[in-house]
Amino acid sequence: MMLDWNEYRKELMATIGQIAGISPDVVKGYQTVTGAGAKTGKLDAKTRELISLAVAVTTRCDGCITVHTKNAIKQGASKEEIVEALGVAVALNAGAALVYSARALDAFAATSSAEGAVAK
């Protein structure tokens, strides 16, 4: 195993508890934003957790990964459903890299024309 995710999640929650003790409004604000989507009732809890897990991967947040993996399992997500959601994250990251590649070529064209070089 790469990481003891259960121990990490426990330690993370303890540290976030310390943050809440010092600055409770920061944690309350986070909890308000987190709970807002659930109030609309348009997506079920499992779907929200699968989306959260995919976003956690795209934002590279280990804390989010451990929390939302646990929550997805709690909501009945199978390993196969989690892998499918992660496939969406992989595709999105590949798509973002492609879009930013286009931006890099645009920067090249602008820079090379400003420098007097020939942009091809």
Fold and architecture overview:
It contains 5 helices and no strands. With 120 residues, the chain is mainly alpha-helical. It has one domain (5-114): AhpD-like (Up-down Bundle), CATH 1.20.1290.10. The longest helix has 36 residues, at 79-114.
Helix content: over 70%
Determine the structural class based on helices, strands and strand pairing.
Answer: mainly alpha
- CATH C-level class is Mainly Alpha
N→C terminal distance: 48 Å
Q: Biggest sheet: strands, sense, closure? A: none
Name the CATH superfamily assignment.
AhpD-like
**What fraction strand?**
under 5%
Element-by-element helix/strand order = HHHHH
- What is the overall pLDDT average? 93
Can you tell me the number of structural domains?
1
How many DSSP H or I helices?
Answer: 5
Radius of gyration: 20 Å
Number of strands: 0
CATH fold title: AhpD-like
Spans of at least 5 consecutive residues whose pLDDT stays below 50 are none
What spatial form do the alpha-carbon principal axes imply? extended
CATH architecture: Up-down Bundle
